[in-house]
Amino acid sequence: MTTKAASDPQYGRLLGVRTRLREFERWSAAQASTLGLTASQHQLLLAVRGHPNAEGPTIGQVADYLLIRPDSAAELVDCAEQLGLVRRRRDDDDHRVVRLDLSAEGQRKLAALSAAHLEELARLTPMLKELLGDLTY
Questions:
Q1: What angle do CA 39, 45, 48 make, to 5 degrees?
Q2: How confident is the model at residue 17 (pLDDT cuts 50, 70, 90)?
Q3: Which of 14-23, 36-45, 61-70, 112-121 has the lowest mean pLDDT?
């Protein structure tokens, strides 16, 4: 496999994109903190609410979304459950499976964060499109 070296402008664009993504992550963590959440707790709420299956995700699926080990996801869920943000419940069809859903408090906090995040992403979209430009080889 042969690879072509990136050009100086492409290196600059890559730096710009990575910098803006890190700034967004920092901003996002600060937004979560204003509601008493960690960035991981915010991501957990989003993983539960954004899961495509209406039955809710399993802890294993949440671990996949968050790119963490299942035991780490279980600890995160334990903490979020103690804070009243999520609930565990047995699957209706297979009682061995535990699914997650959001509590009313988790829904409220996620809705507030999501509204702010959608506004921020709308603001950033033109700048990111410009930064991405034509990154093809």
A1: 140
A2: confident
A3: 14-23
Residue with tokens 């990154």: 135
Asked if 135 and 10 count as a contact pair (C-beta separation under 8 A), the reply is yes
Q: What are phi and psi of 47, to 5 degrees?
A: -65, -40
CA–CA distance, 110 with 42 (Å, rounded to integer):
7
Please state the three-class secondary structure of 46-94 as a single string.
HHHHHCCCCCCCEHHHHHHHHCCCHHHHHHHHHHHHHCCCEEEEECCCC
What span, in angstroms and rounded, lies between the C-alpha atoms of 90 and 122? Answer: 38
Give 49-73 pLDDT, tens digit per residue. Answer: 999 998 999 999 999 999 999 999 9
Residue with tokens 């600890």: 75
pLDDT digits (tens, 9 = 90+) for 95-114: 889 999 999 999 999 999 99
DSSP per position, 90-114: E-SS-TT-EEEEE-HHHHHHHHHHH
Contacts 24+ apart (CB under 8 A), 70-79: 73/44, 76/40, 76/41, 76/44, 77/44, 79/41
